[in-house]
Design goal:
Length: about 110
């Protein structure tokens, strides 16, 4: 992790993603943008690597790479879809279930 490329301030980093609408699952491979109304070609910030609906959490969850992602926690990013719709998601921790580890002490 001490390599020059790993230390770049604006490199893509793994983050969690929570959609604003908990029932909407972001398609894997969807590209992230800061402004869904920008002209094409859009400036891409990253992409979704995995996305599922969690029955335990009763919401969709996803993971992906976002440029400067660790410094962007809590920000909203957008995922334009081929049908013209846009999915909004909040950048969050990639640990969705039991982030404090309390379940191991039951």
């Amino acid at each position: 992790m001490a390599r020059a490329d790993c230390l770049k301030a604006n490199r893509k980093q793994m983050v969690g993603l929570k959609t604003k609408d908990a029932k909407v699952v972001i398609p894997e491979g969807s590209q992230a943008v800061a402004d869904p109304n920008q002209s094409i070609p859009m400036t891409m910030l990253g992409h979704v690597t995995s996305s599922y609906y969690s029955v335990c959490l009763d919401r969709s969850i996803a993971m992906g790479f976002v440029r400067g992602g660790l410094e962007r926690m809590g920000e909203t990013i957008y995922y334009p879809q081929s049908d013209g719709s846009v999915i909004e998601a909040e950048i969050c921790s990639p640990i969705f279930l039991d982030p404090k580890g309390a379940r191991q002490n039951v």
